[in-house]
Amino acid sequence: MKETDIKREMKETDIKREMKETDIKREMKETEVYALDVIRDPIDRFLFSRWRNYFAVLLVLFSMQVAASLVSGTLTTIDIDSLPHEMVDALKDDIVLLPTAGDLSFFCAYLVAIGLFFLMRRFFSYIPQAFRTLYENGIFRKKKDSKEKILTDYNNSLKEFENRINGNRIYVPSFSLYFILILNFLFHIEQIDELNILIWNDIHFFPLNWTVLIIVASLMWFMVGIFIWKMYCVISFMKRLAQQYEFALNPYNPDGFGGFKPLGQLWLSIGLIIIPILLFYVNLFIFYRFFGLPYLLFQKYYDLVIIISYTIGIVVLLVYPMQEYHNIVEGKRTELLKNIKIRIDRPWERLEKRLLSGKGMHLPKKSAEQLGQISEIVSKIQNVPSWPFTPSEKISIFLSVIVPWIAEIVGRLVQNFP
Predict the structure, then answer these.
(1) Per residue in 109-136, is it b (16+ CB within 10 Å) or e — as a string?
(2) Neighbours of 171 (CB within 10 A)
(3) What is the number of other CB atoms lying within 10 angstroms of the CB of residue 306?
(4) I need a surface site. Which of 69, 168, 270, 380 has the fewest CB within 10 A?
(5) For position 417, what pLDDT does the model report?
């Protein structure tokens, strides 16, 4: 055989081997759940792919405010004698001075931002895991009105979800919050003679501080807007899955929730971000009121608005996506018990007649074993919770709603007593 023929055969063999390996990889890929990437947008990828990037941005923002306060002379104290006399003369005699270092909310904003990083990173990393585990638990039977394989349909749904959560509309809530924030700042500008407190970011006396605060707050709330969009996409996708797919209940799944446990964990990962932030700000308002600090007197109803919004938000977040799955589990549980009843009706009638006829007070061994197995299955089905939360998680959700109201009531009672 010529050398050229040998080389040609070797090349053809290599090509066939590569094609076979490609086919094997394609087949393996088609049998796997699609790997979601929920931080594909450039801003999230920059901030959350590496912790250094996020904290570097925070450090820059913090330094900007500290530098502005140093330039304005408001970092630790406010020297009222150094301010324009014609403006100072318009102030009330009992005006309270609040420098940057004395403003608790200044530090709270950065503490919340630090906590947000870890909670949001955990949330983003858990989303792919949750939807992969749901499929592996075997709760999806098929997609309604589809003849494709269930994995094909499910992967297509995941790809649509990924495109949506990373799409251009991700910045719509962020820009909306930005304009709301600007309007809020402009709306709360008071006349000099109406001020009860001279704060470090007052626009009349310290315009540089006010401008830097607008920039920092806008960037922080811009990030909150991105999270709101991603949270909305996750919740709406959970609801869409419930509407588009037929489900199966697996009472023997080790998660103890028929395979639906990841849904509860996904909801709690959202709650872990929302609940501490809102509780933090509610407690901040109550702290100022409890100690009689005048800083938030012009915002005396903000804490109540936040608590009401927070309560409504928790209820909506819980009911909107999870009610569908609650109904699914209830329906599947009833369906399984009904099917078991249909299957054992006739055998049970025969056993009942045998016992009543006096032919024997003891069941045959095989029948007794079958009855024991059926009893175990029924018990497993009945014990599957219709809400994918453990008792301790349910208590935590309840307390997270009720504690702010208790704190608010106590704060108002303390304020009304001398």
Answers:
(1) bbebbeebbebbbebbebbbebbbbbbe
(2) 16
(3) 18
(4) 168
(5) 54
CB contact at 8 A, 337 and 378: yes
- Residue 363, CA distances (Å) to 101, 116, 367, 374 in order: 81, 62, 6, 15
Please state, in angstroms and as integers, the Cα–Cα distance from residue 371 to each residue in 343, 361, 375, following that order.
Answer: 12, 15, 6
> Which among 250, 312, 257, 301 is positioned nearest to 411, based on CA atoms?
301
Q: Which pLDDT band, with edges at 50, 70 and 90, does 13 fall under?
A: low
State both tokens at 176.
């909306």
> Which alpha helices (H) appear in 357-390, and where do they start and end?
365-382
User: Is 0.70 topped by the overall pTM?
Assistant: yes
Q: 198: which 2 tokens? A: 């001279």
pLDDT digits (tens, 9 = 90+) for 286-338: 666 655 554 444 455 666 776 777 777 777 776 777 788 888 888 888 888 88
Q: How far apart are CA 374 and CA 254, in angstroms?
A: 19
Give start and end residues of each alpha helix (H) in 188-301. Answer: 207-244, 261-290
Beta-bridge mates of residue 96? 197
